[in-house]
Amino acid sequence: MAAARSAANFFNTGKGRYLLLAARLILGGVFLYAAYAKLHLDGQWHLGDYNFLFALAIDSYQMLPLWLVRWMALILPWLEIALGALLILGVGLRWVSLAMSALLLVFMIALARAALLHLEINCGCFGYGSVTPRTELLHDSVFMGLSLALTAGAFLSYRARRAQRL
Amino acid sequence: MKSAGTRTILFVALCAALLLPAWAARAAAQTKPLIGNLSAAKSLGSPSAPITIEVFADFQCPQCRLFYLTTTQQLLDNYVSTGKVYLVHHDFPLNMHSHSHEAAEWANAAAAAGKFEAAEKALYEQQDTWGPTGQIEQVLAAALSPADMKKIREIHTTQLAAIDASIEADMALGNSRNVNGTPTIFVTHRGQRTMLPQGGVNYDLLKQYLDYLLQH
């Protein structure tokens, strides 16, 4: 209890705040870049047909039915933009960082499965700049660590501020 | 006053000067068309089709086989034969496959004989047969007529250097486009070339994409 209070106070002090801000900028930037790389391929914007191309990338995981593949391909880049922007702006920080952690968990499960099945695919996470699922799993582990720390920090910070108000 | 001998030498030299370029052009025409035509011979459909699909493939690669069996056949039936898609094959034999370069050579010889489609079909359908043993010629012989096979063998024997040059040209093209695996597929529409994501290309998803392009 005391440790939680101490951590909560830490995230409300100068250093803790800066760490939270840095994590927000890094993760938000990564999500915004991931969306950009899906919409802007090979030097050209693909706003009209990105969903077809991204659907092929998602389907290469051989994991989801086609209707879900199409649906995910259509909304995922915009979800990444929304989460990335909200995180950088600090709007709804607790829920945005929680949603980001959940999304990263889904990505990591898909990547781990592809790596275990030795699927010869690119992860599709960053458009043409994508790497193998195994390598991307390592990247996502770092992002997940950051996202979990951010989520914990956001909740603890909120709790400390609420306690101060009461 | 010039002697008759000098005049003869001058006449011969003049004739040689006039005929040599023609001979050189003819000799070049005899070797170059095979390379030039090979690219067209490995392509299916009409070059004026609104969409061009280029496939960089390795005949020994399992993913290429899967793409051929699940997607190419339907593409041929529904888009290539109807003049909507021009399907271009580029050889990209990977070093990790022991017989893929040899298979590409035979496929190119078949292409020069006008039998690429049948050879491609046989090579992919029988990949499990020739892949471990390297018995490519036998697989093709079982799928093609003796007359076609005779022609293909002749081309394979006499034009191997030109065939290898064609394969090298395909690989150089792939390298220039950052191809690093097979199959790698490019779709070109209205001058805009797009590389499809690597991995299996589902026909239903590709069909939706092609239909979208055809409407725009």
Describe the structure.
The complex is a heterodimer of chains A (166) and B (216). With 166 residues, chain A is mostly helical. Helix content of chain A is 77%, strand content 2%. Chain A has helices spanning 2-12, 14-39, 50-59, 66-89, 93-116, 133-165; strands spanning 40-41, 44-45. Chain A has a two-stranded antiparallel ribbon. In chain A, strand 1 (40-41) and strand 2 (44-45) form a beta hairpin. In chain A, helix 1 (2-12) packs across helix 2 (14-39). Chain A is elongated and about 50 Å long. With 216 residues, chain B is an alpha+beta fold. Chain B has one domain (38-214): Glutaredoxin (3-Layer(aba) Sandwich), CATH 3.40.30. Helices cover 64% and strands 12% of the residues of chain B. Chain B has 9 helices and 5 strands. A 5-stranded mixed sheet of chain B has the order 1-3-2-4-5, with helices on both faces. In chain B, strand 4 and strand 5 form a beta hairpin. In chain B, helix 3 (100-112) packs antiparallel against helix 4. In chain B, 40% of the residues are buried. Mean pLDDT of chain B is 87; it is low at 27-33.
Short account of what is shown:
By secondary structure, chain A is mostly helical. Chain A is 77% helix and 2% strand. The radius of gyration of chain A is 18 Å and the shape is elongated.
Overall body shape of chain A: elongated
- Please, what is the CATH homologous superfamily of chain B? Glutaredoxin
Terminal CA distance of chain B: 77 Å
Largest sheet of chain A: 2 strands, antiparallel
Look at the structure and give the mean pLDDT of chain B.
87
- Could you say how many structural domains of chain B there are in total? 1
**N/C terminus separation of chain A:** 18 Å
